[in-house]
């Protein structure tokens, strides 16, 4: 590691030690998998704290409000963040999904308008893709947008919209040309959430808590200029959003995984299950799997993700789901509980990880992409 | 030799399935969660009592083989009451010990429900007595001093009871072991039923749910998941029935067979839950949809089974234990 990088690591570590304290002290370890609902207001304030110090958009060009940090520095930031027990992030949808989309497909005005508030966490984003009739089959979205003078007027329903209840903006995939074939009639719109035409209803999850929502658009409006790409070009932009390189964030996610695995091992040690060779084998397998995730992320760092994003998703989703099962693999682990529906960490991890192989593109969809793109498409779909 | 059901057993199973379809729909399982309307849960017990189920072993003269598919149906419906505990464990044990406390008439009349203590007491909040099975001894206690415990499956109505003292029932290790095996068999049967329910729900859903212009169930990726889950269940079910047969005949290998049934049924039910949630997609991860009621029950019932102990018992029966040590 070069000296500059070590200095950078020290800077991150010192900053976190100095700031993840006092009013923010309750956030250590909060908001992780299965606890996405926790301490939301304080976490929003924390995002602003991060934004003010320049930790959001670290790798963006300086001209876009970022710090132009190289990949190694971005990785260091994520590692140190996770190591310090930094809380689950709320600005990531803007930072990792919308921002690169605007850099790739947006206008200079859109970049100027939207990137700085993302970097300062003044505006949080949510993703308006899935609908009741458009899940895996995203191109079948029915939400419509029609031009009405200087605005787009949007009507329809989105679902499974994470963080819609706290976001100021939503990037919405909507049908703007009903006569065009299904992939061609879509547009990518940027829509403000705080308006009478939008209603957000929380959906209660297996965990008994709520992080995602239904979002109803009833003649909601956004300025005509808030379209990314041309009308009818929304599919290309939307798929682009999903394909940006996320290896850096993945490495940070893995530090969180390592903490979860440590906790599972500590629990096994405490209740004597380390002496059980079968359990022991499974813990070793989990550790090996995590190493593989890390090597895979390091190997593909900086490459455009494309279909490799599907490989990465399949690797970590299955690994994490198995970790959830390992966490409750002792008699009674799924029973014991204190407060009403105050789940244990192990139970929460288990329940949350049931969704890992579904959200963000199910395993079945990912395997289809891997088969088509990496193995070469064979015959009919 | 055909290892199949008699016409009477099939008829009984169908009658119970019909009864539970109307008396224990998902809305009743939901009502059994905290804050729900307990009266529908009480009505369910009345319906079960009306069919003679609490006293099935004594009154209807059923043995474990007759009982096992009935218990499977109570799993299929996720009955939120101690039906295995009362009908398959407590009632036969009371009958065999001469019912010193005179509880059997209350059980037959539907007034008395008996839960069984493990670490927690599942359905303790809906029971009038708690049966403790501990090594060679069995005794009954009341629920005085019981503390409510909510669990991942909120309909389990579990309690924790203080260090038990109460009415001694027997110190006949054979009888107590038989009761413990009946409890394990009941759990295995319910897990198979729960697995079948989750699979049925999922098959119904993937037939209706359309993406890419076709039902999602028409995709091989989905079909193969469901076929694998079915194969697991079909692999577990005969082992559960064989264990019932071994218990009914008091065969010497019954412990091994009950443990085998538990091991297969816990895995099959967990696999069915995983498959069902996966094939439903996000809707299966919500509480507004019914699937979670059955998945959480399956996880809870599986968690009451000490699979390590069951593995050890099978290993011992196969004379593998000594070799490993």
Task: Describe this entry's structure for a reader.
- The complex is a heterodimer of chains A (381) and B (325).
- By secondary structure, chain A is of the alpha+beta class.
- Helices cover 44% and strands 14% of the residues of chain A.
- Chain A has three domains: 3-90, Butyryl-Coa Dehydrogenase, subunit A, domain 1, CATH 1.10.540; 125-231, Butyryl-CoA Dehydrogenase, subunit A, domain 2; 245-374, Up-down Bundle (Butyryl-CoA Dehydrogenase, subunit A, domain 3).
- A four-stranded mixed β-sheet of chain A has the order 1-4-5-8.
- In chain A, a hairpin with a 2-residue loop joins strand 2 and strand 3 (151-162).
- With 325 residues, chain B is of the alpha+beta class.
- Chain B has twelve helices and eight strands.
- A four-stranded mixed β-sheet of chain B has the order 1-2-3-6, with helices on one face. Chain B has a two-stranded antiparallel sheet with strand order 4-5. A two-stranded antiparallel ribbon of chain B has the order 7-8.
- In chain B, a hairpin with a 2-residue loop joins strand 7 (210-211) and strand 8.
- Chain B is globular and about 65 Å long.
- The two termini of chain B are 39 Å apart.
- At the A-B interface, helix 11 of A face strand 7, helix 9 and helix 10 of B.
């Amino acid at each position: 590691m070069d000296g500059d990088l070590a200095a950078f690591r020290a800077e991150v570590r010192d900053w976190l030690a100095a700031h993840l304290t006092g009013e923010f002290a309750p956030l250590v370890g909060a908001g992780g998998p299965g606890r996405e609902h926790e301490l939301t207001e304080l976490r929003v304030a924390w995002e602003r704290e991060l934004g003010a110090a320049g930790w959001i958009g670290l790798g963006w060009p300086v001209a876009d409000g970022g710090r132009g940090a190289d990949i190694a520095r971005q990785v260091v930031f994520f590692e140190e963040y996770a190591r310090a027990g930094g809380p689950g992030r709320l600005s990531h949808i803007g930072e990792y999904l919308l921002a690169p989309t605007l850099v790739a497909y947006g206008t200079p005005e859109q970049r100027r308008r939207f990137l700085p508030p993302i970097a300062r966490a003044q505006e949080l984003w949510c993703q308006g893709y899935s609908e009741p009739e458009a899940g895996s089959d995203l191109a079948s979205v029915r939400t419509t947008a029609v031009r009405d003078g200087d605005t787009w007027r949007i009507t329809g329903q989105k679902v499974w919209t994470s963080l819609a209840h706290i976001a100021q903006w939503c990037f919405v995939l909507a049908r703007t040309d009903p006569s065009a074939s299904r992939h061609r009639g879509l547009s990518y719109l940027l829509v403000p959430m705080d308006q009478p035409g939008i209603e957000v209803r929380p959906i209660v999850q297996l965990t008994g808590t709520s992080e995602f929502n239904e979002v109803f658009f009833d003649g909601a409006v956004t300025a005509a200029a808030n379209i990314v790409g041309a009308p009818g070009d929304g599919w290309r932009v939307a798929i682009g959003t999903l394909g940006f390189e996320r290896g850096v964030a993945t490495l940070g996610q893995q530090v969180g995984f390592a903490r979860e695995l440590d906790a599972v091992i500590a629990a096994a040690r405490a209740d004597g299950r380390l002496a059980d060779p079968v359990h022991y084998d499974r813990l070793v397998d989990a550790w090996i799997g995590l190493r593989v995730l890390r090597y895979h992320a390091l190997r593909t760092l900086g490459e455009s993700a494309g279909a490799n994003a599907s490989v990465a998703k399949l690797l970590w989703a299955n690994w994490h789901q198995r970790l959830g099962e390992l966490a409750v693999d002792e008699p009674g682990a799924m029973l014991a509980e204190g407060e009403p529906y105050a789940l244990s960490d192990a139970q929460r991890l288990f329940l949350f990880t049931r969704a890992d192989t579904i959200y963000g593109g199910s395993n079945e969809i990912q395997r289809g992409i891997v088969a088509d793109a990496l193995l070469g498409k064979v015959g009919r779909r | 030799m055909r290892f199949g059901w008699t016409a009477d057993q099939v008829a009984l199973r169908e009658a119970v399935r019909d009864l539970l379809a109307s008396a224990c729909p998902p809305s009743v399982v939901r009502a059994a969660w905290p804050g729900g309307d307990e009266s529908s849960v009480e009505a369910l017990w009345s319906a079960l009592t009306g069919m003679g189920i609490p006293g099935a072993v004594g009154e209807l003269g059923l043995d474990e083989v007759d009982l096992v598919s009935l218990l499977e149906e109570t799993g299929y419906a996720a009955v939120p009451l101690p039906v295995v505990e009362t009908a398959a464990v407590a009632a036969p044990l009371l009958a065999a010990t001469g019912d010193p406390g005179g509880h059997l008439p209350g059980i037959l009349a539907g007034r008395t429900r008996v839960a069984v203590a493990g670490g927690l007491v599942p359905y303790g909040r809906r029971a009038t007595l708690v049966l403790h099975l501990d090594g060679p001894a069995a005794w009954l206690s009341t629920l005085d001093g019981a503390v409510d415990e909510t669990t991942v499956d909120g309909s389990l109505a579990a309690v924790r009871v203080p260090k038990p003292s109460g009415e001694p029932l027997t110190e006949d290790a054979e009888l107590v072991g038989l009761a413990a095996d009946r409890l394990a068999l009941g759990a295995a049967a319910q897990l198979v039923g729960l697995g079948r329910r989750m699979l049925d729900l999922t098959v119904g859903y993937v037939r209706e749910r359309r993406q890419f212009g076709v039902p999602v169930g028409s995709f091989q990726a989905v079909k193969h998941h469901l076929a694998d889950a079915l194969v697991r269940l079909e692999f577990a079910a005969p082992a559960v029935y064989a264990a019932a047969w071994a218990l009914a005949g008091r065969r010497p290998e019954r412990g091994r067979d009950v443990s085998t049934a538990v091991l297969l049924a816990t895995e099959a039910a967990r696999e069915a839950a995983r498959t069902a949630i996966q094939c439903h997609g996000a809707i299966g991860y919500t509480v507004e949809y019914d699937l979670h009621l059955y998945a959480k029950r399956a996880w809870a019932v599986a968690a009451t089974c000490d699979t390590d102990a069951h593995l050890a018992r099978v290993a011992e029966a196969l004379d593998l234990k000594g070799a490993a040590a």
